[in-house]
Design goal:
This protein is an alpha/beta fold and about 270 residues long. The chain has 9 helices and 11 strands. It starts with 9 loop residues before the first strand and ends in a 7-residue tail after the last helix.
Length: about 270
């Protein structure tokens, strides 16, 4: 049976940039983008065209930021999808390559962030598991200083994005992906957790971190969108949301203690 033709819509670099501008994306602004390529429709040029369209929309003075997480650099004892045999754990810990911002691929965030990560001129933050990559005029100031014991808190690009007046663009992605909500977790009572990962020189390091959890972020996003000014629209076939990082953090900081308190875990 022949493969059916794509149903579209046809999305190009130019149509994507034009639709983003029509939604209110402004030249010179900073965008933190969470994305789903497959949600857009049939994209001529794939992820490369999407990145070019985003850069066109914000212009040469703008800055594009994406999450480039590498959560697989973690303790194999905690892996569940899939798990590995316990007798492998020590060997995995001894041989797992340490984080290298130039070569460690992003995992679980989609093909668009990985395309940004490898783009000429892209800069990437230093955290081994929750890095961000940036392109554009303010890339360096946004990704520098990402502390190794601060995944998504005050010493991460999220706090810098908040201070810089950046906006979040959910491009076919849901609120469950909204990393800005995690910054609020650092500003309310939250449990700590020991995080294991490969360190320099073949070592295995452990750091104590705030425990982050995206459980109920979809519900949080629903209420945020109901109560705050969120730009809604479509780009291609994708549902799109656009809002300030600072608004999302402030709302989550009030919402989480009321609806998903973790004080009993302290």
């Amino acid at each position: 049976m022949p493969t059916p033709p794509p149903t579209g819509p046809l999305v190009t670099r130019d149509t994507l940039a034009a639709e983003l501008r029509a939604l209110g994306v402004e030249p010179g602004e900073i965008l933190l983008v969470h994305s789903s390529l497959s949600s857009l429709g049939w994209v001529c040029g794939g992820a490369v065209a999407v990145v070019r369209g985003l850069l066109d929309a914000i212009g040469p003075d703008g800055t594009l930021v994406v999450p480039t997480q590498s959560g697989d650099l973690s303790d194999p004892a905690l892996w569940s999808n899939p798990p590995v045999p316990a007798q492998w754990w020590e060997r995995i810990r001894a041989t797992m390559p340490a984080y290298d911002p130039l070569v460690t691929p992003a995992l679980g965030v989609g093909v668009i962030p990985e395309t940004v990560r490898t783009w000429p001129g892209a800069l990437r933050s230093a955290h081994p598991q929750t890095s961000f990559a940036a392109l554009g005029a303010r890339a360096a100031e946004l990704v520098e200083g990402h502390a190794p014991d601060c995944r998504l808190g005050e010493h991460s690009p999220l706090a810098r994005l908040e201070k810089a007046g950046a906006r979040v663009l959910l491009l076919g992605a849901g609120y469950a992906t909204c990393t800005s909500f995690h910054l609020a977790e650092y500003r309310i009572p939250a449990p700590l957790v020991e995080v294991g990962r490969p360190g320099p020189g073949g070592t295995w390091e452990r750091v104590t971190e705030v425990s982050i959890d995206s459980d109920r972020f979809d519900e949080l996003g629903h209420d945020f969108e109901r109560d705050r000014d969120v730009v809604r629209g479509t780009v291609g076939a994708a549902d799109v949301r656009l809002f300030p990082v600072a608004d999302a953090v402030a709302y989550a900081q009030r919402w989480l203690p009321l609806h998903r308190s973790r004080e009993e875990e302290l």
